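Q: what sequence does this backbone want?
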């Protein structure tokens, strides 16, 4: 599989290419398994049997039966994909990217599954309540309710969901904090907090992010970034995250979700009416045996929109990078932090065009470095 001659991916080690290819394949297989399960449930009529069993078990009590049905669906799906999840865990170790013990990983799996069950139950109970109350306009009401929940979840994520898996502490580094204050002042904005993210207990990878909304909006910096990167490099990473903040990327992404879910709910409504009234697959709109159909629609839509959403995300990342170039005195620390991150996280510096186009939420590191160099040349030239 080795290619001769100069090519844009020559800066990537075979190891990095193999690792990223394996991860992409795992993602694809995971999606195929999910789709196959949903289609199988629908065409074999198994979903109807599950609904009958759930109703029997719940003595015909609708909400409880729906909970049983959701739990069974999530359990089947977890059993089918557990092998893949375990394989991903092993892959991280095989490439020396993980510090996590098996027991800790298993505990994370349990917590993630329970969280998924809790959130899914909440959303699905709400959804079918609205369908029962308003079979004609349910999709508009459910859309509005889901947006409200989405904003609420974005708000509580850094204080409720993330701490289930990682520890966080307010950043304890005066020098860095002062640099951030200076950066924020220049931006004419205020970030509510910077937190040290205890990532190294589980991963050797470094990371940073802007999370939360309103009062919970904060920058989180992985401890293994804080320990191994120079202050100038960390400032560059902070400036990039501040760029997301200044350009209101979280808010804009929510706006994008609002538009997409509008069409998603509309499509779901059309499909549901068709399956009930024309195909007679289900007796009523509120027959929750049709849940796999709704999940199928949202899964297929998300998959088809992935290139578009990733393109939008890459646009935001470039904007945050540009903000970073403008706020730091030299782009050199940005370039060195990019190179360090690529090496530490075994990222592909130059993925193939179609991989970047379809899968990647961030521009290729080689491109980000080239943009920094170009920007600095322009500045020197002017
Ligand atoms: Zn970013």
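A:
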């Amino acid at each position: 599989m080795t290619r001769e001659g100069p090519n844009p991916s020559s800066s990537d080690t075979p190891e990095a290419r193999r690792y990223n290819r394996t991860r992409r394949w795992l993602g694809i297989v995971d999606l195929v398994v999910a789709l196959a399960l949903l289609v199988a449930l629908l065409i074999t009529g198994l979903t109807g049997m599950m609904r009958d069993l759930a109703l029997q078990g719940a003595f015909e009590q609708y909400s409880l039966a729906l909970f049983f049905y959701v739990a069974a669906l999530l359990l089947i799906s977890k059993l089918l994909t557990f092998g893949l999840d375990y394989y991903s865990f092993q892959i991280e170790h095989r490439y020396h990217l993980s510090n996590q013990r098996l027991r800790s990983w298993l505990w994370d799996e349990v917590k993630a599954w329970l969280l998924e069950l809790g959130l899914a139950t909440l959303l699905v109970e709400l959804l079918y309540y609205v369908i029962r109350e308003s079979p004609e306009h349910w999709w508009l009401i459910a859309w509005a309710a889901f947006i409200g929940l989405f904003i609420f979840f974005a708000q509580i994520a850094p204080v409720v969901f993330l701490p289930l898996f990682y520890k966080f502490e307010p950043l304890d580094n005066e020098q860095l904090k002062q640099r951030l204050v200076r950066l924020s002042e220049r931006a004419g904005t205020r970030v509510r907090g910077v937190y040290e993210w205890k990532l190294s207990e589980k991963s050797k990878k470094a990371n940073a992010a802007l999370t939360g909304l309103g009062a919970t909006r904060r920058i989180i910096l992985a401890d293994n970034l804080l320990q191994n990167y120079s202050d100038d490099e960390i400032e560059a990473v902070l400036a990039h995250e501040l760029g997301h903040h200044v350009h209101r990327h979280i808010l804009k992404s929510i706006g994008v979700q609002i538009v997409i879910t509008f069409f998603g709910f509309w499509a779901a409504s059309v499909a549901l009416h068709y399956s009930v009234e024309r195909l007679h697959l289900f007796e009523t709109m509120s027959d929750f045996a049709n849940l796999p159909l709704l999940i199928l629609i949202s899964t297929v839509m998300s998959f088809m929109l992935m290139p578009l959403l990733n393109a939008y995300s890459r646009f935001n990342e470039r904007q945050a990078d540009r903000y970073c170039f403008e706020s730091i005195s030299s782009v050199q620390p940005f370039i060195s932090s990019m190179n360090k991150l690529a090496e530490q996280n075994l990222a592909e510096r130059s993925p193939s065009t179609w991989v970047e186009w379809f899968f990647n939420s961030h521009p290729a590191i080689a491109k980000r470095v080239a943009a920094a160099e170009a920007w600095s040349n322009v500045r020197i030239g002017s």
